[in-house]
Predict the structure.
Amino acid sequence: FIAGIAAIIVHDDKYLLLKRSSKRDFGAGHWDCVTGRLEQGEGFEEAVRREVMEEIGIEVSVDFLLGTSHFYRGEPIPENELVGVVYACSTTTPEAIRHSDEHSAYRWMTAAEAVEMLSMARPSSKWLRNVIQRAELLRQHVPDPLVEQFRREGFETE
């Protein structure tokens, strides 16, 4: 299977949604977040920071874990099997976002706006809607000192 990440990025109580380019081989035209695969020898948090930088050109803090996922990227065959870790991230430089060829547009939205838009989108957007709802709930309840500890120490167990 392939190991991957997803980064739900927030700034000033707004979540970043990215529209996948029409040229993408999977999910073309769907609203998404930063996602990607781990490279050989790379840790999950390294992959988060690398993928965010490659896709939108900004740095993020990894604040906490949102969950894990298992799905097939296309036909349910071993080559398409993906196991992912979803992270809540934040940024202090939203104005520095740049487009890569992976996305055609981006929007900053409140959780309520994102959930409403994703509710009217394709059924494949359900996972993102659920993750944003979870992120919003956890952001309200995870204590700031714990988030700071996660940012300093990360989540990798050695």
Notes: The helical segments are 44-56, 111-119, 126-141, 144-153. The first helix runs from residue 44 to 56.
